[in-house]
Prior knowledge:
Rossmann fold
Amino acid sequence: MIKLSERLECIASRIDKGETVADIGTDHAYLPIYLWENEVSPKVIMADISKGSLQKAKENCNLTHPDVDFDCRLGDGLEVLQPHEVDTVVMAGMGALLIIEMLEWDIIKTRSYKKFILQPRNNLGELVKWLKFNNFDIIHYDLVKEGKRICEILTASTQDTKSDSDDCFSRKVKKMDDESSDSTAEYDFPDLLLEHRNKYSLEYIDLHLQKENFILQNIKMSSDCENNHNLKRRLERKRRLEELKSRLLEVTYEA
């Protein structure tokens, strides 16, 4: 039986029994094998753009269940799937910008799947912003520990929209592009942190506060501090984190 890390356990917990699943960027295929073993999903598709990674996935499948013909597909992102082929798509352990690129490659196909479980390695705010402006609901925001790192996992569902036309989509992307790069703190550290708080929330905020304080100290020591375009953004991030920490402690105290 496959034993999952806390990160993959959390992802698995967001998949409802009976849902069909595609794991994009499956790597070792631990998640799809687990879902099949525990009878969570009647159909699991494992896909990867890397021949080497997909070969590792096949080897793990053959090692654990040699008599089962698992569905392994070589290809890039959602290109390996047909519209409506699965209920849930998992994209975990890759950069947010790559996830966005995969999601917007064919927005109509993307909207044909009911749910996405997304775990970006970086640029969380860009992904949160993209989901917001493209009419996805973030229904779960989980923090989990993996080694010394605290990972963010977003579960998003598609909303019903009146139009999926190219013009509609282009306007949404343009609206994102027009958003000031200096106003991203609320996307990087959204209110979802409080709404879906867990045992890692305070530690997560403190870790990011330490990082921002360290960066700010280095900026202030630099000779061009006053002209440093990064200073305003870092101060905004620090203020946002301090605000969230204050609100979190207030809620914790009241509880």
